[in-house]
Amino acid sequence: MPSKNREFTVILVLCFAYLTKTEKPCASFNNIKVSVVQLKGEPFEATIYGCVQRPNFRDEVIVSEILVSEQNVPRLGRDAIRHMPRLTSLVFENCGINNIMPGSMRNLPKLRYFEVNKSGLARILYGTFQELFTLETIKIHNTDLNEIDTDAFGFLPNLKETDLSNNQLNYFDRTWFTNSTNLEILNLQHNKIRTIERKSFKPYHRLREIQLDHNDITLLETNSFKGLRHLEHLSLTYNKLKSIDSDIFPNSIKITRLNIAANHLTYLPTQLMDKLIVRKVMLDGNPWECQCLHKVTNWLYSSGANLEKPSNCGDIPVCYSSTVNEKSCMEVDDDEVRVKYFEALRRLGDKVHKHCARLN
């Protein structure tokens, strides 16, 4: 009889040890208020201690969306959000998140949308989104993000949109998205990117929209956008491009909207125009050499494209000619034209050139 009691005690100890090992307690949340949308019924607020998981809610509540706003959540530790079988959306807004640990989101089989907005997050670690195969949209913006690990957004077969705008990134690396080949929309606006390297986006042949506005881009390497047969919208406004290589696109690509306004361009290569078909183009705020701009507008007219103009920049100069009798576009980078054009812009006042052109 005593031996049976000892066996029973051993079994209990082993079971407890197993449960303790497999389900470690989490402490990411301390008296945190969250807004909850349920599959059926009205939205409500809940207070969370420890981690977000199914036992936090009544049995009849089926949680589909969670918003955490204006709360103090400096760190998402391991298992911070777990075992939520119907959760589709998870948003952290202005919560001061500085660190998201790999494995912080686990057993979320229907999660499609994840967002972090306004935080001190500086790095995305490999494994942060591990096994979240249903994710379609990731938005991490208005943060201190300056480093992303290789494969951090990789192996997500349903990922279609990624917003990394208003961060501190100074480069783009295609290995961030290894095997996430269904990506369609990529927003990298308002960062500090300087160069787009050759074949940066080639693995993501489904990309149809790339937003690179308000960076520090001075160079688009040859074949930068190679392989993007479905690209519809490319926006490069407010960068520092002085020239565009004639081979940045695949041959005969058709783009619905191309925005290259507010750069430092004085001309477009004839070879680029010959292989590019566009429907809408924005060119304003560049120091075009007048004959070169005339050549560009003729190309647009002959191809049936629409020239779009910003609503508040109608009074800025459209081009500058260094030689009165010049009758053809030389297709050379002309610093004299650039300097004279920007001098004319400055005379119009800060309000005009800050909104309509990139001078520095």
Automatic annotation (TrEMBL):
<keyword id="KW-0732">Signal</keyword>
<dbReference type="GO" id="GO:0005886">
    <property type="term" value="C:plasma membrane"/>
</dbReference>
<dbReference type="InterPro" id="IPR050541">
    <property type="entry name" value="LRR_TM_domain-containing"/>
</dbReference>
<dbReference type="InterPro" id="IPR001611">
    <property type="entry name" value="Leu-rich_rpt"/>
</dbReference>
<dbReference type="InterPro" id="IPR032675">
    <property type="entry name" value="LRR_dom_sf"/>
</dbReference>
<dbReference type="InterPro" id="IPR003591">
    <property type="entry name" value="Leu-rich_rpt_typical-subtyp"/>
</dbReference>
<dbReference type="Pfam" id="PF00560">
    <property type="entry name" value="LRR_1"/>
</dbReference>
<dbReference type="Pfam" id="PF13855">
    <property type="entry name" value="LRR_8"/>
</dbReference>
<feature type="signal peptide">
    <location>
        <begin position="1"/>
        <end position="22"/>
    </location>
</feature>
<protein>
    <submittedName>
        <fullName>Uncharacterized protein</fullName>
    </submittedName>
</protein>
<keyword id="KW-0677">Repeat</keyword>
<keyword id="KW-0433">Leucine-rich repeat</keyword>
